[in-house]
Design brief:
The chain is α/β, with parallel strands linked by helices. The chain has five domains: 72-119; 133-375, 2-enoyl-CoA Hydratase, Chain A, domain 1 (Alpha-Beta Complex), CATH 3.90.226.10; 432-533, no CATH class; 546-596, no CATH class; 607-699, no CATH class. It is built from 26 helices and ten strands. Pathway: Lipid metabolism; malonyl-CoA biosynthesis; malonyl-CoA from acetyl-CoA: step 1/1.
């Protein structure tokens, strides 16, 4: 037979050719495949909202209601909700009336919800923006449009499901809609690539922008993406070029553009459809260059710092409106947009119509200029304006220059400046300055010079080896040999220090440190004495104004003028006695006045007696120090502890650890206790008591020994 059984050959998948009894036969197996309902279903519903063309969109209502998701910060609300459900269940089971309790609990729940959502932190708003049940672009579009037709494809062989575009009408006005589309469940999220577009998606949006510009349709874009998809294939296909092309094109479109950030707007992926005349944000939406987690990982090396990063990035709607990046905030219901999607959609609809009414009044040139100026003013600043105190606190502090880079001239200038400040402060009887910063700077410089000198003399290498030996030791006690090596190294450094190349700079900086330390001591003492000085002067004036003393002083002045002698040594005996008597009266009244005001006057010592006291105290201090040194030399345990203490201080000079600090404190305590035992020796006690008796005899100083210096132990 010369015929063909079945269907035409070119429409078949696989064919089998064989010989029949009466000629050539062809047999084929037809594959069973699922019938596609795209682009039209078999029996389209003509009464569907939006008309038959809405069947073009594969987006359909979910068959099952999405499961409620509770965010971490919402858990206290769930406890109240659980109580309400339990009371309602109890009322149903028992038949009792619990309506008052239920109303009270519901009021508490509403108040707690209001308090929580009116004081959200930035990271909490980020979590709400990422909520899995948050309404998507197509949810809002189908809620706000009368008709909507989804348009597919970038005309280059691909249709990216992460970007949805289409034409729709609102109250009879036609708009071009485009936006990022996330999924409502895991299956949809995988299909939509979690709302992360590829270059095909941006090229599809670009095609629709040209289409809208040609036909005069205003453009409304919806932003909700973590960012553009950053895989290898997208980069090969020109992800950056596609975004850049969109940015350039949007600034030249002659139709109004309104962008709405309805979830999270991540970096260039959001900006590629966000160069609009008006940028509006939902109340709990966020717009950022880098996600809080990425920012925290870069700056603080851990994603756990994301709450801090979210605060610093200024990514919320309120912050972005203050910075004039966003132009308005669209309110959300308490609990977020997912709590009442229909109400949120109506707020978006009203915001779109209000913005379009404003923009459509502008001419083409004015519209283009408006869009350009919106972005040109972002980040603008004016020099010479005072910095807001809150901003100043968050500014990066100026880093100190590395030691060794500050010139001697600059250091000398700072020291001279401080001296001048002290002199001026002394003249005005007011001193208020901080020398600690300059002292710390000088100490860093001196430590650096010592380190450089040690390197130049080859001491640092020897010291490092010695430290390694000490670290390997099983116990913390130094052996006599180690103590001797340490002493030799110390002596070698001190002997050869003058030959170091930087010895001149070191000596100069040490002299500056001495000057500034003396200036600091003077400033501190002067500052402490100022209140007392003012009080003493005030009391002295009061004493001189007393009628009796004032009269006596006037009388003695008259007698001195009458005698015609100005020098006290030329006075006759009677006049001298009168002068001394008045002087004693003044001193007595002055001391009484000071005592009554709480100022204790210990004694009156003349210059000669004070010199004798100082000489005796210095002599005793020298003897005590000599005794202590002799005892330390004759006590190996005490000497050993002092050497260990020195080594610990040198070892962790720059950044001492907690363990090192504790060890140093323990050693200092042990050394002080050992020296305290020395102070109880009979010879020292006897000399101390003798000096106390002499002091009491000379000046009436009490037995507290306040004039005797604390001895230096090490």
């Amino acid at each position: 037979m010369n015929g063909v059984n079945g269907v035409p050959l070119k429409t078949l998948g696989k064919g089998h050719v064989g010989h029949g009894r009466k000629g050539l036969n062809i047999v084929a197996k037809v594959r069973k495949v699922k019938k596609h309902e795209y682009p039209w279903p078999q029996d389209p519903d003509p009464n569907v909202k939006g008309g038959v063309l809405s069947h073009l969109s594969p987006f359909k209502p979910l068959k099952e209601k999405p499961k409620p998701v509770t965010l971490e910060f919402e858990k206290p609300l769930m406890d109240l909700q659980k109580k309400i459900i339990d009371v309602q269940k109890m009322a149903n089971e028992t038949g009792l009336d619990f309506s008052d309790q239920i109303i009270s609990l519901e009021n508490k729940y509403q108040q707690a919800l209001k308090d929580l959502y009116t004081h959200l932190t930035p990271i909490q708003r980020v979590n709400i923006a990422r909520h899995p049940n948050r309404p998507t672009f197509l949810d809002h579009v189908f809620n706000i449009t009368d008709k909507f037709v989804e348009l597919h494809g970038d005309r280059a062989g691909y249709d990216d499901p992460a970007v949805v575009t289409g034409i729709g009408t609102i109250d009879g006005r036609r708009f071009m809609f485009m936006g990022h589309q996330k999924g409502r469940n895991t299956k949809e999220n995988i299909q939509r690539n979690f709302g992360m577009p590829t270059p095909h998606g941006y090229r599809k949006a670009l095609r629709m922008m040209y289409y809208a510009d040609h036909h005069g349709f205003p453009i409304v874009t919806f932003i909700d993406t973590p960012g553009a998809f950053a895989d290898l294939k997208s980069e090969e296909l020109g992800q950056g070029e596609a975004i850049a092309h969109n940015l350039r094109t949007m600034f030249g479109l002659k139709v109004p553009i309104v962008s709405i950030v309805m979830g999270e707007g991540g970096s260039g992926g959001a900006l590629a459809i966000g160069c609009a005349n008006k940028l509006l944000m939902l109340e709990n939406a966020v717009f950022y260059v880098a996600s809080p987690e990425a920012c925290a990982a870069i700056l603080w090396k851990t994603a756990k710092a994301s709450p801090k990063a979210a605060e610093k990035l200024k990514i919320t709607a309120n912050e972005l409106c203050k910075l004039q990046i966003a132009d308005g905030i669209i309110p959300e219901p308490l609990g977020g947009a997912h709590a009442d999607p229909q109400w949120t959609s109506m707020q978006i609809k009203n915001a779109i119509l209000d913005s379009m009414d404003e923009l459509e009044k502008m001419g083409t040139e004015e519209l283009l200029r408006h869009r350009m100026l919106k972005f040109r003013k972002i980040g603008g600043f004016q020099e010479g304006l005072p910095v807001d105190p809150e901003k100043k606190v968050n500014m990066k502090r100026k880093e100190e220059p590395r030691p060794g880079l500050i010139s001697d001239k600059a250091l000398q200038g700072e020291v001279n400046k401080l001296k001048e400040q002290i002199l001026k402060a002394k003249e005005t009887s007011s001193i208020n300055m901080d020398q600690n910063g300059l002292i710390e700077k000088l100490q860093r410089e001196i430590n650096y010079e010592f380190s450089e000198a040690a390197k130049a003399l080859g001491i640092e290498e020897k010291l490092s080896k010695m430290r390694e030996e000490f670290a390997k030791a099983e116990n913390e006690q130094l052996t006599p040999g180690q103590i001797k090596n340490l002493e030799n190294l110390k002596n070698e450094f001190n002997e050869n220090l003058a030959t170091a190349p930087n010895y001149g700079r070191l000596k100069y900086k040490l002299s500056l440190l001495k000057e500034i330390t003396e200036a600091k001591t003077f400033a501190e003492n002067y500052k402490k004495a100022l209140p007392l000085k003012a009080k003493v002067n005030e009391k002295f004036k009061e004493v001189l104004e007393k009628p009796t003393l004032k009269q006596n002083i006037e009388n003695i002045k008259a007698e001195i003028e009458k005698s015609g002698v100005s020098n006290i040594e030329e006075f006759d005996q009677e006049l001298k006695e009168k002068v001394l008597e008045v002087r004693e009266q003044v001193e007595s009244e002055f001391v009484n006045a000071l005592e009554s005001s709480g100022v204790h006057v210990t004694s009156k010592v003349d210059q000669t007696s004070m010199s004798m006291i100082k000489a005796k105290v210095d002599e005793l201090n020298a003897e005590i120090n000599q005794i202590i040194q002799d005892v330390i030399e004759s006590t190996p345990d005490l000497k050993n502890k002092i050497e260990i203490l020195k080594l610990e201080i040198v070892k962790d000079k720059n950044a001492p650890s907690k363990e090192s600090k504790e060890k140093i404190e323990s050693l200092q305590q042990q050394i002080k206790q050992g020296v305290g035992d020395v102070m109880s020796y009979a010879a020292v006690k006897e000399k101390y008591e003798e000096l106390q008796a002499e002091l009491a005899e000379l000046s009436g100083v009490g037995s507290d020994g306040s004039l005797i210096k604390e001895p230096i132990y090490a």
